[in-house]
Design goal:
Elements lengths: L31 E6 L19 E7 L11 E5 H4 L2 E7 L4 E6 L14 E5 L8 E5 L41 E6 L5 E6 L4 E6 L12 E5 L10 E9 L2 E8 L16 E7 L9 E7 L43 E2 L4 E8 L5 E7 H5 L2 E4 L6 E4 L4 E7 L5 E3 L4 E2 L2 E2 L28 E8 L4 E7 L10 E7 L5 E8 L22 E7 L6 E5 L21 E6 L2 E7 L5 E5 L34 E4 L17
Parallel strand pairs: 16-20
Antiparallel strand pairs: 1-2, 1-29, 2-3, 4-5, 5-6, 6-7, 8-9, 9-10, 10-11, 12-13, 13-14, 14-15, 17-18, 18-21, 19-20, 21-22, 23-24, 25-26, 26-27, 27-28, 30-33, 31-32, 31-34
Length: 624
């Protein structure tokens, strides 16, 4: 782009601004958001029951600006039979492809390609999901303890309780955690929970199945955990760097279980893709022994939500389990931190998502691993603000404030320093920690979206959906219910075990932004000295007709304005035939999911018609 400035523009010390834009940070108005759905049962088993696990949704999308009531804007691009239980999501906007990675979630079975699968999903639902890569068969094992594809004692019908015993201790230790795409969309970053390694996978645009030679393994360093293991999960590619997050789990020794919460801490590392393999730099860490609210006020037990060390056995949860006074299901809870999401604000500050491991170990009226008693799981995740202070350093929120920003619950004794920035993560007075560790930020709206159980503060309980928080003051801006009370996701019917109720019923959150628009053009001017350079004293040419050709065919025309400027602009929908604002129709390469038509690179040409001769344009009179 060219900008001419006169002496008069600067006589009084004025400055001239010139805008630069990162296309990876672009997002259109009201995009969809996507999340993984967790339903009870094994989607790979045939069922003649009323609620086959295979038919339950695998992924749900809703508009970023949600409807005010109901669940009518749910759209399900996949079934559970096609992808199974997934968590990590990332969106290749140039090919309009959502990538979804398999996860170990107790009571919810894998998809057809098992524990190491990463699937390609068309968010429009027109093209069926397909396998991008199975890490296990590619030689990068993600675990076998829970079974690589089939699971023990999962039911075919989602209405039938199941036990899924081997998955209890496997949650957070095997399978795939977070995933993220590089800004050029050609590199997929994947957290292998089993090897505790960050995988750098070259997938190209559009995403194609990589070979073993396209994968580089970066073992994530151990920060030196006391009486525990380092358990990484979160992955975020941001401004050319890759950030990973994990927790010191405090899980050792297993004999008698560890109850020392001072062993719990969260850690963030930064990996430089341009550096040596395996390079990681510590970025920020903080303890996880801060006070939290009450997990549930139902029944006689009202357990605090303070994080507890990871456990490996069902019996570690303790008695009474369930609480006989907590309602029809018996509420069961044991909050264990998993660091599952890192999102960046425009100033480089961070919002962090912590999932409750118990939320992924428990269900809604599902059996214990070795009994026929049903239990109602209650999760208790968290959402935290990490700001950049005046000295340019990271600073964790303290008593609801963060580097000059003031949140919603100062002094409530439920967060670092005795307060909470995002303090409206409550359901009435019953549950004081309802978020589930999935996050996304839409910077232009100043809002962060988190998964939550009982998302409507006055709505149905044992439900799941999203909450929108203001990123500058932590207030609750909106909410949306994906599945209602004990609702079979996707059918609208009531059936208690099918959805996950107050346990983790949804996975990560991904914003499905379109590609940044493209403009071709700029300026036609009179080259007085004929040297081909735009000199500052050379005047623009107004009212010149300019044509854009695509692959040899006329795509549109434009006329230069008083500054000699013209632009041909891309639209967001290649099926749009309005050539005034949608001249450029490229979608990258491959098949476009909405139209089913080939995309692919196009060859563009700028032409000025009638530049010479008898029919010369009037604006070019006397010029050649």
């Amino acid at each position: 782009s060219v900008q001419f400035i006169t002496d008069a523009d600067l006589t009084n010390g004025e400055t001239v601004d010139f805008a630069l834009h990162n296309p990876a940070e672009y997002c259109d108005d009201n995009p969809d958001i996507a999340s993984s759905c967790f339903s009870s049962g094994d989607p790979l088993l045939p069922s003649s029951g009323a609620h086959p696990a295979a038919d339950r949704p695998g992924i749900v999308t809703v508009p970023f600006n949600p409807p005010t009531t109901g669940t009518g804007d749910n759209f399900y691009p996949t079934t559970s039979a096609q992808v199974g239980a997934t968590w990590g999501l990332t969106y290749q906007r140039s090919s309009r492809t959502l990538l979804a990675a398999a996860v170990v979630r107790r009571h919810s079975g894998f998809g057809p390609d098992g524990i190491g699968a990463i699937y390609r999903v068309d968010p429009s639902g027109i093209i069926s999901p397909s396998l991008l890569i199975d890490l296990n068969t590619a030689g990068f094992p993600t675990g076998t303890s829970v079974g690589t594809i089939t699971r023990t004692d999962l039911t075919a019908d989602s209405a039938d309780p199941n036990r899924d015993p081997n998955a209890f201790d496997t949650v957070g230790k095997e399978g795939i955690g977070g995933i993220s795409l590089s800004e050029d969309e050609s590199t997929l970053w994947v957290m292998n929970l089993y090897s505790r390694s960050l995988l750098e996978i070259q997938i190209g645009v559009p995403a194609t199945t990589p070979t073993a030679g396209d994968i580089t393994v970066h073992p994530v360093p151990d920060p030196g955990c006391s009486d525990g293991e380092f358990r990484p999960w979160a992955v975020k590619a941001y401004q050319g760097q890759v950030y990973v997050g994990g927790v010191c789990s405090g899980e050792l020794p297993y004999s008698g279980k560890n109850t020392d919460t001072s062993d719990l801490s969260a850690h963030i590392y930064r990996h430089d893709p341009a550096g040596a393999a395996g390079n990681f730099t510590p970025v920020f860490d903080f303890p996880l022994d801060y006070p939290r609210g009450v997990l549930s006020r139902e029944g006689a037990n009202q357990p605090d939500a303070e994080w507890l060390p990871w456990i490996d056995e069902w019996s570690d949860i303790g008695a009474p389990m369930p609480d006989p006074n907590s309602g029809p299901f018996g509420q069961t809870m044991y909050p264990q931190p998993m660091f599952t999401a890192i999102e960046f604000d425009t100033d480089g500050s961070m919002v962090l998502g912590l999932n409750d491991r118990a939320g992924m170990q428990l269900g809604n009226e599902n059996y214990g691993p070795n009994d026929s008693t049903t239990y109602e799981g209650v999760a208790g995740g968290d959402i935290l603000r990490v700001c950049v202070n005046a000295g340019g350093n990271y600073e964790l929120e303290a008593n609801g404030s963060c580097a000059g920003l003031t949140g919603t619950r100062i002094g409530n004794n439920e967060g670092p320093g005795g307060g909470e920035f995002f303090g409206e993560d409550v359901y009435q007075t019953t549950h004081q920690e309802v978020t589930l560790g999935g996050l996304t930020i839409y910077p232009g709206t100043r809002q962060v979206v988190s998964t939550a159980f009982d998302p409507d503060p006055d709505g149905p309980y044992r439900s799941g959906g999203f909450r929108w928080f203001d990123i500058d003051d932590g207030t609750l801006a909106d909410y949306y219910v994906v599945f209602g009370q004990d609702q079979v996701i996707g059918s609208g019917a009531a059936d208690q075990p099918s959805s996950m109720g107050k346990a983790a019923g949804l996975g990560d959150v991904e914003l499905l932004c379109d590609q940044a628009p493209i403009e071709i053009g700029n300026r036609v001017w009179r080259d007085t000295d004929g040297d081909g350079v735009q000199d500052p004293d050379e005047l623009p040419l107004e009212n010149v007709t300019v044509e854009l050709y695509r692959n040899g065919s006329l795509a549109g025309t434009a006329t230069t304005d008083a500054n000699g400027e013209y632009y041909f602009t891309s639209g967001t929908d290649p099926s749009d035939s309005d050539t005034t604002d949608n001249i450029i129709h490229d979608t990258g390469v491959g098949i476009h999911p909405r139209t089913g038509t080939p995309g692919g690179d196009s060859e563009y040409e700028i032409r000025i018609p009638n530049a010479n001769g008898a029919s010369q344009q009037a604006a070019l009179n006397g010029l050649s």
